[in-house]
Design a protein that fits this description.
- The protein has 106 residues and is an alpha+beta fold.
- It has one helix spanning 57-71, and strands spanning 6-10, 13-16, 42-47, 50-55, 80-83, 97-100.
- It has a two-stranded antiparallel sheet with strand order 1-2.
- The two termini are 22 Å apart.
- The model has no long low-confidence stretch (mean pLDDT 88).
Amino acid sequence: MTIPKQQRLSLGHTRRMDEIVLSVPGYDSAHGVVAPVEGGTVSVEIVDGSVEIFGDRAGLRDLARWCLALSDERAPSGAHIHLDPGTFPLSLESAPLMLARDPQER
């Protein structure tokens, strides 16, 4: 995933932005959705009916990699991963998290 170096502020004005690049292996039906992890920490909490996700920098990048892996054009509709507490990057105190590709998408 590449975040653009420039962001439009107003008509005719731009601002340079740093670039963040993350890589994930392409989808392989023999292995399913795979994403390397740095070993960061993420905690998912449900507070007053709202899902709140907290993470250190490495953990947020790990979570982003899972999302990128699911977004691969070769990943099938409905492809998903279950992240349970204590499974990287979720902390032991975290609520479980399931990330999925929209099953309605073709």
